[in-house]
Amino acid sequence: ERRLQNIMERLNMLSMELSPPGPTVAAGSVASVFSAKTKLYIYSSHISFSSSFKTCLFPTCFQRGEVLRIIRKTGDGWWLAQDTEGNKGVVPKTYLKVINLLKIISGAVHLIKHSGFHCVCVCVYMSQSDTTNVLSSLGTIHSGFRSSTFKLLMEEGHYTLKQPELSQSQLSFRDLFLDPVTGRVRGRQVRTCVCFTLWSCRMIPTPGVGVQVLSRHIRLCAFDGTQVLSNIHTVRATYNAKSPKTWSFSPRMTGILPTLLDGDCFLRCNSVSPDLGILFELGVTFIRTSTGDRGDLSCGWAFLKLTDDTGNPLSSRTYELALNGGTPFEKNVPVEASVTTGSPSGVFQQILQARRQPKLIVKLKSVNRRTRMQLSLLPDTLLHCLSCIPLLVLHRQLLADTLLMDRPTMQNADLICSPVLSTFPVLLDQPDLLDALRSAWLDADTNMSRAQKRDLSYLKQEFVKVYMSSVYFLLHTPSLPCHRWADSVSEEQRARFIYATLDSLKHTQHTADQSGGPEFFVNRMHQHLAFDITELTFDLLRVAR
Fold it and tell me: Given CA atoms 298, 360, 486, 386 in this order, what sign does their dihedral have?
């Protein structure tokens, strides 16, 4: 009886926590437990566990499919976990498997709508940002705004650029092959390969008073209606105070356009799903002026299905996508409650209502033959900006040489000494360093002759030199401020340091002829962080996993 009473009390708390925004006494009671600052690991048991062990999680046992929250992981394989009733204990990691967070969210929304039951997993997701909950309660943000789903998924670390995966036989790679005649990466055609431009966003509601917006951006990925199929790519929008509800992309500027602001993107995906498309989440990173708390909001989402009703690819033209509120798993949620969704009687009212609806404008476009050839050399699943294709292709070629040619045997899985391969994925999480590599490589490319540009071995050798004498040095210098998303002070400091360092390094290399050589790194003029073996080692087994 006491156990049932505890369950009823917990359900009441969860009901209050997940209720629509409004004043509530227990609004922070559950949210304080599942704070956004605490990294959460949600697992379910795939084997029933007997109570014969003294270290069992429950007094009796736990059943197959029960959801557990991992609090601490240990090297001996016995992890400290917590069940939905708050009981803590240790459990063998071999009896657990990770739950897909998207399935938790979609299943929980379906459960709430049809049965009114609120599960703890929904509480973990919905309460991941205490600041967002407070702003909802105060009415500062619109009813269609939510905590950013993509931000939460990116923090898991599973939706970044994937290294080559092994095939089903475990004897070769799934999408990485070499042409035996030319020695180049063999191009692969995928079912879906589109190039598009983020044009603008119109009539996007702004947060209310007491909130300072630090960044307006779009996060996008390949999506089939149930799960994320690619990496999550971020494009920051530019903002004009004269038209606060309009976002634009790819601003004109001197020099190279930063990767973070580049709205020209491509998607490669080999999924056979008929519902494959691109999911866009419009978001803002904000800071609450009264407390200094930061958070990430979703201002709405849109979905562009890449095939028509007959299954044919969409034509290259401009598409206006209506924005929806809530999460991608909620239906018929308006972004802004003040915008009526009913059908007005007059034609003039219909035109006015259509102009008030939030929209995302995307343009599908075709590219030239050279770009299509370069795209075929990239992984089967990837979403990124078009300006980074040359760097991605060169990295792909070095990866193929290392994994398919330079290993003693195909069964050899020893650590590989390759500072470029071990650190290149870090650049995709720090766009300013990726821009530094683009700038350095552009300078080197302009000084090459046509014959040198056609020589693959020369290109690879030069790319390694440029990489080692630019971004590899920047990655391991103690003077570079830490990367922090949507922090204007940190971004300005990093930008000044990066380009001042690149100019200094360029001058040193021209005078001393030390482009990427060992002498460059032992020079007492250049400071470095303490050496770590992971800077140089590429772990094939970790990549395969």
Answer: positive
